[in-house]
Specification:
Elements (H helix, E strand, L loop, with lengths): L1 H17 L2 H14 L4 H24 L4 H8 L2 H34 L3 H18 L2 H12 L3 H9 L4 H6 L10 H17 L3 H13 L7 H29 L10 H8 L5 H33 L14 H19 L4 H27 L2 H4 L6 H27 L6
Helix pairs in contact: 1-7, 1-11, 1-12, 1-14, 2-10, 2-12, 3-10, 3-11, 3-12, 3-16, 4-5, 4-14, 4-16, 5-6, 5-14, 5-15, 5-16, 6-15, 7-14, 8-12, 10-18, 11-14, 14-15, 16-18
Length: about 400
């Protein structure tokens, strides 16, 4: 039973990264624009995040180093500090977007004012995270997020063209015209990068240390990383399918979370629509908690300060104040009127730019035999890690130009 419950770390990590506010709308837009042609970056991103999550879990177990301790020790101080600032700014922006999304979903369910709901959400999350130990946080939000399987059921009922879906595994170098080609690559880069958002590995490695994983748990590390990521990937594929079936034939382009929820619930009745809203609520809530805790983990690990969700608040003051500050400032951003979906676009931009500087030091640590001993990277790990690092770097370089010339993928 303990092993099964341990899977919730991978599930919460993956769903918080794969099926958050931005990814739900973004993937539906990709399906609406290019039908099934963008299946391949989902598969590519899934393999990449499994490789890196397994590495960071292994480093946490053997070297007792979470991700930001690795960043601190393997980048020069100025560059390391810049990565810390950018990563926590990413966490803050993403947390604000997810909290805004939670308020939108609750408004759709209740009809109550969004700002009032946001205040209630922030207070609730603050109390829940402060009161519960790490394992209960991951179990509650991880298991609740599994309800998003409703998207997979919806996609199955809608009956995709399986042959055309299979063709989506093959990348296209060009489309009908220049604008379509650039938009295609914008969505490809965005999907691939969104599946590798840094806070996923930050949270995952910190969670492994929170749970006190030992060397004997390394097989579980691979299983947790793989099962959680594959589940998140299948749900992302389901969103792509829904976008292709519901929006592509009508040449429409979803831009609101409410539109996305309606599309996912298309095969269901009123009761099914409510279930879908609760499923989205669970995923967005998990992403909110994941990003705000990651902010505390990053700061304390970089400056070697005491941290840990399982310790009393007064024993880890910097950690506690940081995640509470993340929650507070993120809530104030939405109350001030920032559009959650625009914040998501900004967060993806930040994430792409910082991504190589997160995964490069992680690779260096996993390849260091002095640190890892007999658990050093295998040759296959090195080849895959380096290949994906090159792709991540190319995606980071291409992200901003593609976003500008395509107006964020607008048709």
């Amino acid at each position: 039973m303990k092993k099964l419950l341990g899977l919730t770390l991978g599930i919460m990590t993956a769903l918080g990264g794969f099926v958050d506010f931005g990814q739900i709308v973004f993937t539906l837009q990709a399906g609406a624009s290019f039908r099934y042609a963008l299946l391949w970056p989902i598969v590519l991103g899934t393999v990449a995040i499994i490789v890196y999550m397994e590495m960071c879990g292994r480093i946490a177990v053997i070297a007792r180093e979470p991700v930001f301790a690795v960043v601190r020790n393997r980048l020069n101080p100025k560059l390391g500090t810049a990565v810390l600032v950018a990563s926590n700014l990413l966490n803050l922006i993403t947390c604000a977007a997810e909290l805004g999304g939670v308020a939108i979903v609750l408004h759709l369910l209740t009809g109550w004012p969004q700002k009032l709901l946001l205040v209630g959400v922030a207070l609730t999350f603050g109390c829940v995270v402060a009161a519960l130990r790490f394992e209960w946080i991951e179990r509650i939000f991880g298991l609740a997020g599994v309800t998003m399987i409703a998207a997979a059921v919806s996609a199955w009922i809608l009956a995709p063209d399986w042959r055309a879906l299979g063709h989506g595994l093959v990348p296209h170098l060009s489309m009908a015209d220049t604008h379509r080609t650039l938009s295609y690559w914008y969505f490809a880069v965005g999907i691939f990068s969104a599946m590798l958002m840094e806070y996923e590995v930050h949270f995952y490695s910190s969670g492994a240390m929170e749970e006190g994983w030992k060397e004997k748990d390394l097989p579980e590390n691979f299983m947790v990383a793989s099962i959680g990521s594959v589940l998140g990937a299948l749900l992302t594929v389901a969103l792509l399918v829904i976008g292709a079936i519901v929006f592509f034939p009508h040449h429409s382009f979803p831009e609101q979370l409410s539109t996305a929820a309606n599309a996912i619930a298309a095969p269901f009745g009123r009761a099914g629509h409510v279930v879908v809203l609760f499923a989205i609520l669970a995923c967005l809530s998990g992403a909110s908690v994941e990003t705000m805790l990651s902010g505390g983990y990053n700061l304390c690990q970089f400056y070697n300060l005491p941290w840990g969700k399982n310790k009393k608040l007064r024993k880890v003051p910097a950690f506690s104040l940081t995640w509470l500050g993340m929650l507070t400032v993120a809530s104030l951003c939405i109350l001030a009127g920032f559009d959650p979906l625009k914040l998501v676009n900004i967060s993806v931009l930040f994430g792409m730019v910082v991504m190589p500087l997160t995964y490069y030091p992680l690779m260096r640590a996993a390849m260091d035999k002095k640190i890892m001993g007999r658990h050093v990277n295998s040759r296959a790990d090195d080849v895959l890690g380096i290949l994906f690092l090159l792709l991540i770097t190319l995606a980071a370089l291409a992200a901003i130009p593609l976003m500008i010339v395509t107006n964020s993928g607008q048709p």
